[in-house]
Amino acid sequence: MVSFTYLTLAALAVLGARAAPTAEPSALDLPDFDFEIGTQNVTRRQDYNQNYKTGGTVNYSPTSNGYSVTFSGAGDFVVGKGWKKGTSRTISYSGSSTRYAGTVLLSVYGWTRNPLIEYYVQEWTSNGKGSAQGTKVGTYTADGGKYELWKHQQVNQPSIAGTSTTFWQYIANRVDNKRPNSGSVNMATHFAAWKKAGLNLGTHDYQVLATEGWGGAGGNAKYTVRG
């Protein structure tokens, strides 16, 4: 059950000029891996690696069921592990993040096409806000916490469809009970809340658990992912 509080859509408040790290990453075929749900052993395929950076040093190491990354002086980067096609799956993760410089966040991150949408479910942000900017659409509760929902228009910025385009970012920022170490994100609940707020998605492209940093970011992160 989603509870949603609508806020007045005031004039657009642009909260910084940072362009989201949206260059198209590479997709790699990786072996299947097994995990257990209850007493039934099932196989899931995680075969997508997000790996983008501008400036600094970013050392990303994917595994069959997660990733690790160390970074220093990073101008802007996104790395992560997930699926070539996003869905309303529940994504569980465990691990840790350490940050000693810049801004770092942990999110479920993905894209849709037609319309072209870049989206975030920010589970932890070192500065409290992460990439949230633009217009605050409302708040809702999901996965045991409260999220603020934002939308922000990008113009002539990198995307999975190229750089000469206009598209929207949908950014859900968890503002209490932040979860840098472990959690489960029910994407169906989030997508339903966004739809209720008038934020519609298109056909799903890739979807990952991602570590992101900018502003000379330094630190490290390591996570396992399943869904």
In short, what is this structure?
The chain has about 230 residues and is mainly β.
The CATH superfamily title: Glycoside hydrolase family 11/12, catalytic domain
CATH architecture descriptor: Sandwich
| Helix-strand category | mainly beta
* Termini separation: 21 Å
SS strand fraction: over 45%
Q: How many E strands? A: 13
CATH class category label: Mainly Beta
CATH topology: Jelly Rolls
Mean of all residue-level pLDDT scores = 83
Q: How helical, in percent, are the residues?
A: under 10%
Please work out how many helical segments DSSP would assign.
1
pLDDT < 50 stretches: 1-44
Spatial extent as radius of gyration: 16 Å
Largest sheet: 11 strands, mixed
Number of domains: 1
Shape: globular
GO molecular function: endo-1,4-beta-xylanase activity
Protein name: Endo-1,4-beta-xylanase
Catalytic activity: Endohydrolysis of (1->4)-beta-D-xylosidic linkages in xylans
Signal peptide: 1-19
How does this model look, in words?
With 227 residues, this protein is mostly beta strands. It has a single domain (4-16, 46-226), classed as Jelly Rolls, CATH 2.60.120.180. It has one helix at 187-196, and strands at residues 4-6, 33-37, 40-44, 48-54, 57-63, 66-83, 90-113, 117-125, 135-142, 145-155, 166-174, 182-186, 203-226. Strands 1, 4, 5, 6, 7, 8, 9, 10, 11, 12 and 13 form an 11-stranded mixed sheet that branches. A two-stranded antiparallel ribbon has the order 2-3. The longest helix is centred in the C-terminal third of the chain and has 10 residues, at 187-196.
